[in-house]
Amino acid sequence: MRFGLMLAALSMVSAAAAQYTPPRTRDGTPDLQGIWETRNAAAFDVSEIADGHEIPYLPEALEREQKGNRVDPMAHCAMPGVPRINYLPFPFQIIQRPGLVIVLYEYLHNQRLIQTTPREHLEGIDLWMGDSVGHWEGDTLVVDVADLGDKTWLDSARHTHSDALHVIERYTRTGPDAIAYEAMLEDPKMYSKPWKISMTLHRNTQPGFELREQECTEGDNGRAIQPQYRPAPKGDPLEFIRTYPKSGGSK
Amino acid sequence: MKANMLICASLLAVSGFGQSKGYVPPRTSDGLPDLEGMWQPRANGAAYSILPHPGGFFLGAESKEGVVQGGVLPYQPWAAAQVKELTQHMEFDPTGHCHYEGIPHAMYFGFQIVETPKYIAVMHENMHAWRIIYMDGSPHPRDYSAWMGDSRGYWEGSTLVVDVADNNDKSVFDMAGHFHSDVLHVLERFIPVDANTMRYEATLDDPKVFTRPWKMGFPLKRAPKDYQFLESGCFEDERDQEHLVKGKAALPADHYKQ
Q1: Contacts of A92 in chain B (CB under 8 A)
Q2: How many CB pairs under 8 A join A and B?
Q3: For chain B, what are the domain ranges?
Q4: Is some CB atom of chain A closer than 8 A to the CB atom of B243?
Q5: Low-confidence ranges of chain B (pLDDT < 50)
Q6: Residues of A whose CB is below 8 A from B94
Q7: Which of A96, A111, B124, B164 could form a disulfide with B129 if both were Cys (CB 3.0 to 4.6 A apart)?
């Protein structure tokens, strides 16, 4: 029953995406530019936006996780990794140039330079934010992320991954102020099958809104320095609860 | 700000600084002077000291010229005494603690520029810092203070001029203790020289610390084709901490142990 509902919900998203034709940049790619933010609580528990609200752990991986490090690397100002950076409660800005998609994140001044020319992933290196290679599939930006290492977590609830994590992100404009974001997480050392997260990225439409500096380093004794107080974004702050399937709930 | 601009203008007129020698760069698809791409300064030792300095472990390679025009920093007497003290305390260098370098310090390392009509984005490789230079004539935000300051710019012919305000008093100019206050105002100029060269110049005005505005400058070269920046995490289990943090700045030895 729940599965059926999920399928129905997903096909509705696809239908909406199919109906909307995004504006183009000067070089003809779908225009994803602007300042975007999420309105969900996946930063605390990523299973909220996971298909079926379940993470298909291998039993031995779950045991390893439960015996593992209990201190969130982000509490020590480490870079959050992908996909976690996308659902932190901080806005980010997408900039497009020919052959390049740039994502500037307010959180910890992270940046991703995503080339949209196919190439092999870098070998023999682990990066906190991974190695991102993009390409366009119709109106969708697909970003293949590897080389993520095993140090980052997926959320504050200590959902983890191994150094074999491979993330495929999909960004599809579904309206003037919305991007449907999906990511497949594949990690054969950790999960019994690939699993998917989905959420909406909302455009920040406040006039004159700009990203500000956000800093967090060892010199700050692990305390994040937050940007100035901002009012909550317009829209439905409880969206994430209302989109739960009726028969669902937390795992 | 207007006064600063005037000071800068008169300095420029005297020195011949800040002038492009007739090279006109190609235009982007938006019709802007095309400074896009990856740029790197020639090794100039500025990260160690912006003044002329000998070689050595902490001071890196020798630099006979430094990057400061005239080779002298016009410190007020109290500030000259303080910089002497700071030079002896490498552990106070905020970049050793993985903080932002600030402007102009971040410009001693490689960076990438992309241009749009409303803003220019600069992605610095070091410290994974980035900044957006707003080109829409908007003012600096009020009551804002940041490691990287706040950048607003405009085009002067083919030269990109960037006005950086809202700096905090924690970032420094180099590892040798050269410092500024929170009233530091930086006017940067990115001057195209030829297809693969720009000249970077900055006029620095900080009446709390210096007796007059002063300037620095150095050439920037385009990075080779297919060059790609990698992640500069800086934060790597803080293995440097015990080497850098001594005396006042020290954290308890077990601070980060779990």
Answers
A1: none
A2: 89
A3: 2-225
A4: no
A5: 1-16, 237, 245-258
A6: 219
A7: B124
Question: Which residues in chain A are contacts of B129 at CB distance < 8 A?
Answer: 109
pTM of this prediction?
0.85
**Contact between chains at A127 and B129 (C-beta distance less than 8 A):** no
Is some CB atom of chain B closer than 8 A to the CB atom of A79?
Answer: yes
Measured between alpha carbons, how far is residue A147 from residues A72, A109, A136, A167, B114 in Å? Answer: 20, 20, 21, 10, 26
User: Under CATH, which number does the domain A2-206+230-242 receive?
Assistant: 2.40.128.20
Distance from CA of A111 to the nearest CA of B (A): 7
Provide the residue ranges of all domains of chain A, joining segments of one domain with +: 2-206+230-242
- Counting beta carbons within 10 angstroms of the beta carbon of residue A222, is it exposed (0 to 12), middle (13 to 18) or buried (19 or more)? middle
d(Cα B201, Cα B216) in Å, to the nearest integer?
Answer: 6
CB spacing of A113 vs B123 below 8 angstroms: yes
B135-158 pLDDT, tens per residue? 999 999 988 999 999 999 999 999
Q: Which residue in A has a C-alpha nearest to residue B149's C-alpha?
A: A213
| Contact (CB<8Å) B128/A208 | no
In A, minimum Cα distance to B251 occurs at A221
Task: Please write the tens of the pLDDT for every residue from B200-244.
Answer: 999 999 999 999 999 999 999 999 888 888 888 876 545 555 555
